[in-house]
Write a structure and sequence with these properties.
Blueprint: H1 2-51, H2 58-72, H3 78-81, H4 91-94, H5 100-111, H6 121-129, E1 138-143, E2 146-149, H7 158-166, E3 172-176, E4 186-190, E5 196-198, E6 201-202, H8 205-209, E7 216-220, H9 226-231, E8 238-246, E9 250-260, E10 275-279, E11 286-291, E12 297-298, H10 316-328, E13 335-343, E14 346-353, H11 358-365, H12 369-384
Antiparallel strand pairs: 1-2, 1-7, 3-4, 3-7, 4-5, 5-6, 8-9, 8-13, 9-10, 10-11, 11-12, 13-14
């Protein structure tokens, strides 16, 4: 009886926290969200709109915006984000694009109630490793001002860190243990002196002790397979595999895209100049066209000139299997975007994203309402059944 009371109490606490999170999103985040949408549109999407030569007529654009606002109940910034003003875009295609406001404020909080499970990369790595899935090897962890090895032993002396790094053979990546978007990721390479260098910084006890602002991971650099290195060798190019988990059924894959870095950047994120292209899930072939953040399409990689047509991800079936295996380990998360690298020895799971990236899906799949909403309706109903706020 006491255990049942404890469960009821914990459940009510969880529901209360979910409710308060919704209130915070409404009161604090939405004003910033509106400001972000206006700024992003003014800086990026409206200039593209003004240069576009095959626009619909002004009256048609006004009617489109009216019907989108009426249909979704929010301002249709996505009309300009996805170039729906193009004269070849039909009314049916226009309504197949999901607004960011609907996805991030109405659907995602109900689908991913426990999004924090993926926020901490240290906890995430431990959970995924228990499945027998390959992940990047962690060498050093910096948490709450404490330097530790992968097993949790505290490292207080320079000699201990030098010994760990001295046993490494390839490059090393330093990245935040929380966060996303490829920000603040550094690659350290072994110099002629035998020390790991990134610019003027040496990876040693003194450098690690100066880290602040968040927790950090030092991991072994992942070597990708030949076909992905051919597109852009400077960055680790990963597949973004989006899964949905339905109770009683388990996980299945909804979408699969390849993210490729550009301009010799070390990350593959679109925000750092990268491009993304749809991957055919039956045989791993890439679509002919990739896209970037500036609404531009590319038949060849913008930096290397390699054509996307003809590239095939040979490990695609194993990648999809690994994504479903990981998703089944996090049943409280309805939809997850898994970043998976293909190496010569097989897929390696880099991270899971509780916000799987709306733009990358909709540009490569020409919208997502027709494929996404039928898949999540049952899950949405289940996640809101019996919720009584305290």
């Amino acid at each position: 009886m006491q255990a049942k009371r404890a469960r009821n109490f914990n459940d009510r606490v969880r529901r209360y926290e979910s409710f308060m999170g919704a209130v915070i999103r409404l009161l604090l985040l939405r004003p910033n969200w509106l400001r972000y949408q206006i700024t992003r549109s003014a800086q990026t999407y409206l200039p593209v709109f003004s240069r576009h030569r095959s626009r619909k007529s002004f009256s048609t654009i006004v009617v489109d915006l009216f019907w989108l606002t009426l249909h979704w109940g929010c301002l249709p910034f996505h009309y300009f984000r996805y170039g729906l003003y193009d004269e070849n875009t039909t009314r049916a295609q226009m309504f197949n694009y999901l607004p960011e406001t609907i996805f991030y404020f109405r659907l995602l909080p109900r689908l991913n109630i426990h999004a924090f499970l993926l926020d901490d990369k240290c906890v995430f790595a431990a959970a995924v490793a228990s499945l027998g899935v390959s992940i990047p090897r962690t060498v050093i962890v910096f948490r709450r001002g404490t330097i530790m090895d992968a097993c949790g032993s505290v490292l207080t002396e320079s000699a201990q860190i030098d010994a760990l790094l001295g046993a490494m053979k390839g490059d090393i990546v330093l990245k935040p243990a929380t966060g996303s978007g490829g920000k603040e990721i550094y690659v350290f390479r072994r110099s002629q002196s035998g020390r790991y260098q990134c610019g003027d910084n040496s990876l040693d006890h003194q450098f690690l002790s100066r880290l602040d602002g968040c927790d950090w991971l030092v991991q072994e650099y992942v070597e990708q397979c030949e076909e992905l290195s051919l597109l852009h060798s400077n960055s680790l190019n990963t597949l973004r595999v989006v899964t949905i988990f339905n109770p009683g059924v388990g996980a299945r894959v909804l979408y699969c895209m390849l993210k490729v870095g550009a301009n010799h950047a070390i990350t593959d994120n679109a925000h750092t100049g990268g491009v993304y292209v749809r991957v055919q899930m039956d045989d791993g072939r890439l679509d002919d066209v990739a896209y970037d953040e500036e609404l531009r399409s590319h038949h060849q990689h913008p930096t290397t000139g390699v054509s996307f047509s003809g590239i095939r991800i040979r490990q695609i079936h194993e990648v999809l299997r690994v994504a479903c295996l990981c998703a089944n380990a996090f049943p409280a998360l309805g939809i997850v975007g898994w970043d998976i690298a293909c190496t010569p020895s097989g897929p390696i799971v880099i991270e899971g994203n509780s916000s799987p990236g709306l733009t990358i899906i909709q540009r490569t799949y020409v919208g997502m309402v027709d494929t996404f909403m039928p898949s999540v309706e049952k899950l949405l109903r289940r996640n809101t059944e019996g919720i009584d706020l305290p």
